[in-house]
Amino acid sequence: MRSVLTLDSHSGRRLVMAGLLLVAACCFLPFLFMGLSRESLEVLLIPIAVIWFAILAISRPAAALMVYVFLAAVSMRCEFLVLQGNKISGGIFFSQVLLAVFLIGWMMRYTARLEREPRASLSLSLPLLGLAVIPFVSVLSAYVTWDPEVSTVHRKLVVQLAGASLIFLAAAAAFLTAVVVKSVSHARAIVTIMVGIASLAFFDVLGLFNTPGKALIFTVAPLAFTFALYAPTHSRRFLWLTLLIPPFIIAIQAIKVTLLVALILPVLFASFAHSRRAFFITLAALIAGYLILGAALGKSPALRVYEKAKRMQDFDRILLFQKAVGTWKEHPLFGVGPGGQFAYLDGEHFYGTAHSLYGNFLMETGLFGMIFLLWVIGAAVLMGWKAFRFCRYPPRARGPDNPEFAFMRTFTLGQTAGFLGMAVAGLFSDTMLPAVQNGGMYMFGASVYLWILLGVTAAFRRMQLEGKVGQAADLNLYSELEHPRAST
């Protein structure tokens, strides 16, 4: 404890105090104001665990991030603040509390250090900052303009702050992962944990791997495909391709167009970026799989999707999107605030959400929020593509067989392809940044991995621009080889 706090005593003490205040806000305030009751053991264990995690975050940041990734994957949750319909009934992810403490601590510790880093090292910093702040501006705007007859002030603030926190946590997770990941070995460990848990999630082991756990495999699937593309042997290629089987089975069984888009588009994008031959082979394999599936089912899969969408009233999502646009026109600048559509959509449809990333953002955060969302998506894809090209066409000094470059090249292509696929699927889904009504913190457990992986790509790009990998690092190595006496 002493050695940890002497590392950065002021930040350490502030981190522990922030953790205690956060735990009090998340765990005890709901008891006082909502009349909830939980077992005293849970109340005692959560502060202890959060304080321990705060100390770990100070002393071993990379290890703390990996612990969080594991806990979020297996959905270790204690229910305290879950929003269900119009009622506030209980639950917040235990792992999300840990993430919040982790983010607060590293914001304080690295504020001064970030000022000394190159401006280009975190090209996503400004759009991510806007993405994190705008939801709270929307809450303030909605608080001023909301009709008091629609809802009580208490319910309005709780719902909207919960919705704003989801967006803030996603943006902050990407930003601070970019700061914490300092080497390729850190990234390898994070990806290994995600791939390992994703491979188990399909089997729903002991009930631990529920919806967020299964959703992880849709984030890992594009990575698995790119690792198969660049695998040095056929056995490794086959091993990576087997990870693509579970998400395709889930998507076909669910007959969800958004899931298929989130899988097929990244696969086609990654294969096209790899080579024309890989693209045509992948396209032929997808067409053949479609024909075989149609023959096995006795009906066109596209027709089955259409019939189910019509039967389940999925086409109502188009109407919900139109309703969201209409609501946005009444509040064009900052929207109705995250979760503010309760007053507009409830009673007209079961969901109470536009079920669209862009429809929700436009209605909830207005024009300013939509600008930052599109800026983040565009900047993320462009940054990932630049990081991939940096490693794909290395100068002679780097050497194309450098293992660090091989991993960076493979990872950045898979992450960028997956992020792009989720962005397109977001037209009629909100899994990238879930609406507070559509599962709230529960669904956030499915989307946070996407933002952590985005932060890893940002860290790789920072390393490239700072010369920590690539030509500068390799030239130093060559200099030592050519002049061993000088280097010793």
Give structural notes.
The structure is a single chain. The chain is built from 21 helices and two strands. A hairpin with a 2-residue loop joins β1 (83-84) and β2. The model is unreliable at 1-9, 22-48, 73-95, 205-210, 345-351 and 471-488 (pLDDT under 50). It is globular, with a radius of gyration of 23 Å. It has a two-stranded antiparallel sheet. The protein folds into two domains: 1-116, no CATH class; 125-487, no CATH class. By secondary structure, it is mainly α.
Short description:
It is built from 21 helices and two strands.
Range of strand content: under 5%
Give me the Rg, rounded. 23 Å
- Tally of strands: 2
Q: What low-confidence regions span 5 or more consecutive residues with pLDDT below 50?
A: 1-9, 22-48, 73-95, 205-210, 345-351, 471-488
The major sheet is characterized as: 2 strands, antiparallel
Any idea how many domains?
2
The SS-based structural class is mainly alpha
User: What integer is the average pLDDT?
Assistant: 66
Overall 3D geometry? globular
State the separation between the terminal residues, measured CA to CA: 37 Å
From N to C, what is the helix and strand string?
A: HHHHEEHHHHHHHHHHHHHHHHH
Overview features:
globular, disordered N terminus, disordered C terminus, 488 residues, 2 domains, mainly alpha, 21 helices
